[in-house]
Amino acid sequence: MVYIKLENGEIIGKGNFTFVYHVTKDIELFNKFFEAEKVFKINYIDFSHKMRVAYEYFAIFEECKRRKQLLEYAEKTDEDIEEEIITEITTPASIINYKNIIIGLCKHRVNDFEPMLLKYQYRNKNDRDNRRAIKIFIKYIYDFGSKSSHVNKKIKDQFIPNKENCMKMLVSFHDFLTIYYSAKHKFDSTMIPVRDYIAVPKKVCENMGLYLEAGKKVFVNEKNGRVLYNIFSSDVENISLSQKRDIETVNKLWDENFEDPSNIIRTTENICSSNGDYKYQVYSLPGRPLKINFELLKNLSLKEKIDIIKGICRGIMSMHEYEPPFYHRNICPDAFYIFKVKDKYKALLARFDCTKDTSEYALYTVFNNLEKKILNEKSNMYFAPEVIAANVGINVDWAKADIYALAQTCLFILNGRLVNKSNNYIDVIDDCSINDDIKYIFLEMLSENPNERPNVDRVVETLG
């Protein structure tokens, strides 16, 4: 249908044309626009063709409605009227066509469209002829769909199916329809679907406690009656080095590893538009992603918290045991997503924007991103003391620094407290209802001396 209902009760629309269904209650009309919009980021020629199909369906649908109000059509069914319209259009030398139908539907409302015509430069401010401008617009939309569907060397620049032209066509037609249907809806480019993946609005993500870093977005799709969650990560050439490191780390851990890593997010699909304007790494998630925060933790049992901690530690172990090893360098609750799978909680390590690639073939560093984290008092509370004291983390043993940050994250999960100047680490650990072996390993992990901190495999072994 037109909406997807998420597990938390939130309802999201499929793309930017849901208002068409609101007004008309015609699912087929909505589907025509949805089918076009969802291939916008995949193939511009296919998009252009499908927009023309939507244009034609809209013309017939609205003309049928208009004629049904006339006395001579009172006894005719919708199917009869539609067949008559199509016959008129397809009759040789007929003056009836899709463009003229829509022009006729708008002829008494041309001034209503003035803001849209001016915005997209179908009419300049010195030209007061809205009637002529609406004709230009309606003709352009149809011609774009027709000419862009068959690219040739003689095609005019305005009809070339590229990102700029297709976006203008998509947004201006959307705005035309909002005026035609007297609907209040603003086009949102971040809500453009990709194939059958539906974008989740930023506000909905924030209501779930999700604040994704730049270049990432949550999409959902439906399969066998279930709502599936996915993270889309932009993979175009101009992404930042930290985004690039994030993607490369996941791919190396999965594709260049002797054994599959544990508790690491996984790429399940690569989506690329026909000309490379849009590229995405798609991470399929085992359920609705949850962030580690007080709201989640207050409702968890000790066993559930330990399960999460075990998963977090296994994720870090997968990085440290990779050959050559990766060091995360920004372990904190925000680096993980939590999922409830078959009544158990599972943690996945999902953020790698500060990761150190120790390979001799590493072509770049993400030092600047790490520097920002260290210098920011709001984000540096999980860093080991030697990281803060050093010259922005230079000459730090990152394997041991990761262990300290891992302990801080584990303690936050257990009792919502961190070791800092006002919290003695022994008191913080004593407040945790855990066995003595785990308390002792946490004490070692939080040692001021990095050399006294255990390796992550020993931490995982102690947790059991």
Automatic annotation (TrEMBL):
Domain of life assignment: Bacteria
Stored Gene3D superfamilies: Transferase(Phosphotransferase) domain 1 (1.10.510.10)
GO molecular function: ATP binding; protein kinase activity
Domain Protein kinase: 6-464
Protein name: Protein kinase domain-containing protein
